[in-house]
Amino acid sequence: MSAVSVAAGRTWRRTPFIANPWLRWAMYAGALVYLVLALGSLHVNWARLADGMVRGWRFIEGFMHPNFTSRADEIAVGLQESIAMTVCATVVGIGLSIPIGIGAARNIAPRPVYYLCRGIVAVARSFQEILYAIFFVAMFGFGTFAGFLTISFATVGFLGKLLAEDIEDIDEGQVEAMRATGASWLQVLNYGIEPQVLPRLIGLSLYRFDINFRESAVVGIVGAGGIGATLNTAINRYEYDVAAAILMIIILIVLVCEYASSHVRRWVQ
Amino acid sequence: MLRVTDLAKRYRTGDEALRGVTFEVPAGQVVGLIGPSGAGKSTLIRCINRLVEPTSGAINLGDVEITNLSRAQLRKARRRIGMIFQEFALVERLSVMENVLSGRLGYVPFWRSFLRRFPGADIDKAFRLLDRVGLSEHVDKRADALSGGQRQRVGIARALEQDPELLLVDEPTASLDPKTSRQIMRLICEICAERGLAAIINIHDVALAQMFVFRIVGLRAGKVVYDGPPAGLDQVTLAAIYGEEDWTALSAKHKEDAEDAAAVSAAALVSTRAKLGVEQ
Fold first, then answer.
1. Which of the four pLDDT bands, split at 50, 70 and 90, describes residue A69?
2. Is B87 in contact with A173 (Cβ distance < 8 A)?
């Protein structure tokens, strides 16, 4: 009884993440000071900003009156290139990322293969696609081939890593049961592992198709062909109405892809 | 038929799971392997088909020395050893039929298993086995659509599809309710008797083991401390296997637990009814 009455006046505070109060407040203050200084270092040119508002408004006006017709041929070619680039790069990318993803899974790959495949994935993921696009354009010249290589490579980095992580997370019991039947390595892969990772792999591949279409619009800006090249040309010519039309088409295609892929994903789960 | 000689397993963490286990299983005998958690029961049966590599000792299945086999020879040997798992270890997203047929993976080439073109005899056998375990109506259902007892029946059919000479059974009832546990144990033991199959059954439920098997091997800290008929398990031997404990008191406590559980569920029923009454 007396223990209860003693306990009544106690207080409790959550233990702070950084226990030392001096260190804690010094870090808060330091972060705040740096933020203020960093904001001060962004030179804002107010006159140029006012100028830009006018240009920005012209851009918005372009959206009010998108011009689909005057450059219809160029837009059609750009779209064809982009779609071809997306489809080819997605298929090739998936084809390459399956063996690399399997090789990069710690629980099934021998050590040397594991390090090699992890290395490939790490290289493919370490830079933004644009940097690879610039590199491939320099190597293979302007055009869709450089774009195709860029997007394939990025797909390998993305799917390879996620597939490897999925394989590392599987239920080992099913694999053990297949090994216990005397199954070969390929059979264990086909029966013990594939059914566990396939639905998510299909979902991720469709998601990657979306991303690849968007990427195909971006890599064109650095010379790798596709609708991005058409868009870049339109902006350089100050044809904001054409640019607006192209952006609208991209938005529409991305929406359609997203809707379709979410549908298929729900169906395969 | 199976002879295990001086088997030892030391894990890389330094745990000595098995320290010189020796025993023999003649053809057609069903052995219950009991012991506390961590005694090495699971390790022992996984060493027999080398899902776990033993550190030293010998395992002879018929005239084959399992510990010396190459990878290809090991696959051949594994076909002769069926395995049944605690968590069923079915391929959840495959159908019941595919799960049973996966017992043939050691026999068929990759292209057949990949295209699911198993030989007619294998398919006949699978249908017969599904009939035997009472699942002929669920052939094309996905394994994850079945109840626990049904899943374990698929597991049994898969093991038998291998035409094994020996069954390794790892806690077949630990994920099941008491009634289903008995049914599954009865099924396993009946099938072993029908086919003259030898089996090693890991089980921690001593009463269940005593009910169904004719020989018990007790394992404690990686050593065999009892090997004999179920009737020989008295206070002294149980204490040797599981450590000191008042076994009569324990079973009395079990009874109390059961009574408590019954009281709780009755109370829950009453309160649910009360709630429903309020809503109506």
1. confident
2. yes
Q: For residue B38, what pLDDT is reported?
A: 83
Place of tokens 């404990």: B245
Between CA A251 and CA A255 the distance in angstroms is 6
Q: What is the CATH number of domain B2-80+166-275?
A: 3.40.50.300
Residue A185 is encoded by which pair of tokens?
Answer: 């390595």
How far is A44 from A49, CA to CA, in rounded Å?
8
**Confidence label for B277 from pLDDT (cuts 50, 70 and 90):** very low
Per-residue pLDDT at B231: 86
pLDDT of residue B257: 55
Q: Where are the beta strands (DSSP E) in chain B?
A: 2-10, 16-25, 30-34, 56-61, 64-65, 81-84, 166-170, 198-202, 215-220, 223-228
Strand ranges of the sheet holding B30-34, from the earlier edge strand across to the other edge: B81-84, B166-170, B198-202, B30-34, B215-220, B223-228
* Domain locations along chain A: 71-268
- The structural architecture, per CATH, of the domain A71-268 is Orthogonal Bundle (1.10)
Q: Nearest residue of A to residue B50 by CA position?
A: A180
Provide φ and ψ at B3, rounded to 5°.
Answer: -130, 120
- pTM (2 decimals)? 0.80
Q: Determine the distance in angstroms separating the CA of B105 from the nearest CA of chain A, rounded to an integer.
A: 5
ipTM above 0.85, yes or no: no
Which residues in chain B have Cβ-Cβ distances shorter than 8 Å to A187? Answer: 105, 110, 113
Contact indicator for A81, A230 with CB cutoff of 8 Å:
no
> Residue A11's pLDDT is what?
86
Q: Could you tell me which residues are beta bridge partners of residue B217?
A: B33, B227
> What are the structural domain ranges in chain B?
2-80+166-275, 89-163
* Whether pLDDT at A67 is above 80: yes
CB contact under 8 A, B113 and A199: no
